[in-house]
Design goal:
This protein has 25 helices and 24 strands. The chain is an alpha+beta fold and about 850 residues long. Strands 15-16-18-19 form a 4-stranded antiparallel sheet. Strands 1-6 form a two-stranded antiparallel sheet. A two-stranded parallel ribbon has the order 2-12. Helix 1 runs parallel beside helix 4, helix 6 packs antiparallel against helix 20 and helix 11 packs across helix 12. The protein starts with a helix and ends with a helix. The longest helix is centred in the first third of the chain and has 32 residues. Among the domains are: about 45 residues, Complement Module, domain 1; about 40 residues, Laminin (Ribbon), CATH 2.10.25; about 30 residues.
Length: about 850
């Protein structure tokens, strides 16, 4: 076959694959439209895993590319069966064509890094260009790092447990649901409370996890090869990887499986190498991190320019974030509401449409997942705006962008300080912290800060075993609230209305400070609120967090428990007797061995979770190693780490060190007394200190002396953009940027010379996204309309916009015009009938 014919064939298959993926997504959105009010656990999980539009576009491109290559592989295998001379099939040129036409190629290339004087002053919102030699390290929407090669059943992409007859060390892997029922699950009453740490320690871990890792699920919830609904099938058909239920699972007698969707692949991974007949040269499937890896408060600001724009108040002169204009917490701000289309949150019984409290909008899509998480998101929103207003008072000459970036920089530094100084040492224990993290010695450009797959998918999920089954709300005296009793955890899922209607933040903050976290005990790993009632808002269905974690690890091809122990320099555990040296509970060991048959088969999340704690720690040796190594990489590989000399002045670092999570609570909630260490559980009032005695930053360290001369006066405000002031080689400079949806025309940086500014200020011109034919913003089913700074995808009745806001889906009802015609026709028929009857009667 000629190269031209081969390329034509590839393009044809590529188009068919794109249609296949789009059809699966279309069918998913249509089903979701019909079930919009149902709020099933599976739908809520999908919402919490719903990627931001940029991540969604990349996931879609990756799925098109992967499906195309799988289709080609099937065709090649068929052709080679008929050929005497099998050959390599895809040239590098054709692979590049597939990558380009699928939309993957732009996300596989290194980004263009700025060269203005701001390159060392502020972190890009995407996290790109932190390392100038490796600009994709740590950036959003790139593959998670692999510290060990993945273990897939076909060597490339099939999850562990995909083929039921596949044996590991002579045995099949146990069903994850069986592991949950036999080893992990306990009743809500079986809780040992932590005598040292407050519930806030658990919530901070969850919040920080949402700052550094988010693995999007497949953009489709239906199989690509046939379009079967993943919620209706128990067959493994990509992206469906259902959780099989044991035959005797009495809790779910009417079901055979629970729905599970594979994580989206990163662009350019999975399957390609198999064309060349050598699996050792394959590029196995990798999973994507939709967030920046860095501790940079992306929970507050987002990880893409589009989301960042949605979160900012661009009309303010103080660099503020948007707040909720409808609801207030005794004069304090709530997070803004998410658009109705993307808001499946529960409502107070009897609520009318006009009184709905929608999900909240934040830098991370999971902000409304549970009330305690919403509390932290809200505190940091308030802290940013508090800092921004104060900074504007100190530096009236600062532009809104300068204020926003400086406040963002401070908030990011506080996330780093609270995590590395106050949180991680409590989790690892002092000895492991010294061993794996140690003292800061400065930025190291050879360190890759990218979050690893095993950290995001297993090690940092240790915190799920510390989640208490109840949400506690306390009154002003830190006693059980007479009007706000404790809630079962499942009553706090996706329920922001409880904040607005039931007392605001303060009762919840008091409960987090003065009540213990659940202690992770080997025979009390996870309670029923998580294994039986995850995301349950009604009687329709359930999910199991423990099984989801185990299945996710297998989906990602994580090597087993012993492989990771060896990676950390810990001895492999070859026998049941060996397991006794790291797990005290013999009953747990017996159950684990009965299920897994061989120590090498144990899933890494379960193995790490069951280990005995290290001294003064809340993890065992394996997770201490994996979490410690990750935290050290996040710190040492971050050019914008707060302790790095060029990031803050010495005076500013001194002030930052004074701040704490307790101070954040004092400044942004209604409490007047707090523990000095918010993570240390204490009794009120003896272990609580007045907010007046809690140290705080003096923002005078950020006051900037500025002498404006006549030669280089600050220009007027830029329409649809802004500028930030900085120094370069002793000269004053302004760096301009446009809001998302606009492009800069003119010089990005202008410098003050003896004759004034060396260039005229640039302008920001609206981008017409609808003219982008290579990557159209709307699906072909929708009409694209350009708007100022954005675009709209429009549908013709009776089609409506799907949840991706770019595809038109059939609403299943008659067009409004048809309804009008039917109504008018009915009226005319009625009039004619009446006239006819009148004439007949008179005659």
């Amino acid at each position: 076959m000629s190269r031209k014919a081969e390329k034509s064939q590839v393009l044809s298959i590529l188009e068919e694959s794109k249609q296949m993926v789009d059809n699966a997504i279309y069918n998913t959105m249509r089903r979701n439209l019909k079930k919009r009010e149902a709020n099933t656990p599976a739908q809520l999980l999908s919402f919490s895993k719903l990627p931001e539009p940029t991540s969604r576009a990349i996931s879609h491109a990756a799925e098109v590319m992967e499906t195309s290559i799988q289709a080609l592989k099937r065709k090649v295998v068929l052709e080679q069966k008929q050929s005497q001379h099998p050959t390599d099939i895809l040239s590098e040129d054709l692979l590049n064509t597939i990558a380009n036409m699928s939309g993957c190629l732009p996300y596989m290339l290194p980004p263009k890094c700025p060269n203005t004087c701001l390159a060392n002053k502020y972190r890009l919102i995407t996290g790109a260009c932190n390392n100038r030699d490796h600009p994709r390290w740590g950036a959003a929407n790139t593959a998670l790092a692999r510290w060990l090669p993945p273990v897939y059943e076909d060597g490339i992409s099939q999850p562990k447990g995909w083929n039921h007859n596949f044996l590991y060390n002579g045995f099949p892997l146990p069903l994850v649901r069986e592991v949950t029922r036999q080893v992990i699950q306990v009743s809500n009453e079986a809780v040992t409370e932590d005598d040292q740490y407050s519930d806030l320690l658990m919530v901070w871990g969850q919040y920080i996890d949402h700052d550094i890792a988010f693995t999007p699920q497949s953009t489709s919830k239906a199989g690509f090869w046939g379009g079967i609904d993943c919620q209706m099938t128990c067959e493994n058909q990509n992206p469906c990887f259902p959780i099989q239920l044991p035959f005797n699972d009495s809790q779910k007698a009417s079901l055979q499986c629970l729905p599970f969707y594979r994580s989206a692949a990163a662009c350019g991974t999975g399957s390609q190498g198999a064309f060349f007949g050598n699996l050792s040269e394959s590029n196995p499937r990798q999973q994507m991190n939709g967030l920046t890896s860095f501790l940079d408060a992306s929970t507050v600001y987002g990880s893409t320019p589009a989301l960042e724009k949605k979160l900012r108040n661009l009309t303010s002169q103080e660099g503020l974030l948007l707040v909720n204009r409808r609801y207030w917490d005794e004069g304090r701000a709530y997070l803004p509401s998410a658009p109705l289309r993307a808001s499946p949150c529960a409502q107070e019984p009897g609520t009318h449409d006009n009184d709905r409290v929608e999900c909240f909008l934040a830098g991370d899509n999971r902000a409304s997942e549970v009330l305690s998480l919403t509390v932290l998101h809200t505190l940091w929103l308030r802290e940013h705006n508090r800092l921004a207003i104060s900074l504007k008072g100190l530096n009236p000459h600062w532009s809104p962008d300068t204020i926003y970036q400086e406040a963002r920089k401070i908030v990011g530094a506080l996330h780093q300080i609270i995590t590395m100084r106050d949180y991680i040492p409590k989790i690892l224990g002092p000895e492991a912290f010294q061993q794996y993290v140690g003292l800061y010695e400065g930025y190291d450009s050879t360190v890759n800060p990218t979050v690893s797959n095993v950290f995001a998918t297993a090690a940092f999920r240790f915190g799920h075993a510390t989640i208490h089954p109840f949400v506690r709300r306390l009154d002003d005296h830190f006693q059980e609230h007479p009007d706000l009793p404790r809630l079962h955890l499942h009553d706090a899922f996706f329920s922001p209305w409880r904040l607005v209607r039931e007392g605001g933040l303060d009762p919840l903050v008091r409960g987090l400070l003065a009540r213990s976290a659940k202690l992770q005990v080997q025979d009390q790993l996870m309670n029923e609120e998580l294994t039986e009632k995850l995301f349950v808002l009604s009687n329709s269905g359930t999910l199991d967090l423990a099984s989801l974690n185990l299945q996710r690890g297998r989906d990602h091809g994580l090597p087993g428990y012993n492989e990771w122990r060896e990676f950390c320099g810990l001895p492999r555990l070859k026998t049941q007797t060996d397991l006794n040296t790291v797990i005290t509970s013999k009953i747990v060991i017996e159950k684990v061995m009965k299920l897994y048959k061989h120590p090498d088969n144990i899933d890494v999340w379960l193995g790490g979770l069951a280990e005995n704690f290290l001294p003064r720690a809340r993890t065992g040796p394996l997770f201490a190693c994996l979490i410690g190594k990750q935290m050290k990489a996040l710190r040492d590989g971050d050019r914008f780490w707060w302790e790095n000399r060029h990031v803050f002045t010495e005076a500013q670092r001194h002030e930052l060190e004074k701040h704490s999570l307790s101070r954040i609570i004092c400044d942004n909630a209604g409490l007047t007394r707090v523990p000095v260490d918010a993570f240390q559980v204490g009794k009120f009032p003896q272990d609580f200190e007045s907010c007046e005695n809690i140290p705080h930053m003096n923002l005078e360290a950020w006051r900037e002396t500025f002498h404006q001369d006549d030669k280089c006066a600050f220009p007027d405000k830029v329409d649809n953009g802004d500028f930030v002031y900085c120094d370069e080689s002793g000269k004053r400079a302004l760096v301009y940027s446009c809001h998302h949806g606009y492009e800069l025309q003119g010089q990005e940086q202008i410098t003050c010379t003896d004759k004034g500014w060396d260039f005229q200020p640039p302008i920001c011109k609206d981008i017409n996204e609808c003219k982008n034919l290579m990557d159209p913003p709307c699906h072909p089913s929708a009409q694209c309309k350009n708007t100022k700074g954005s675009f709209q995808c429009l549908c013709t009745d009776p089609y409506v916009l799907g949840e991706d806001e770019r595809t038109c889906i059939d609403s299943g009802r008659l067009p409004k015009a048809s309804l009008v015609s039917i109504t008018l026709g009915g009226v005319l028929i009625g009039i004619l009938a009446a006239l006819t009857w009148t004439v007949i009667c008179r005659w």
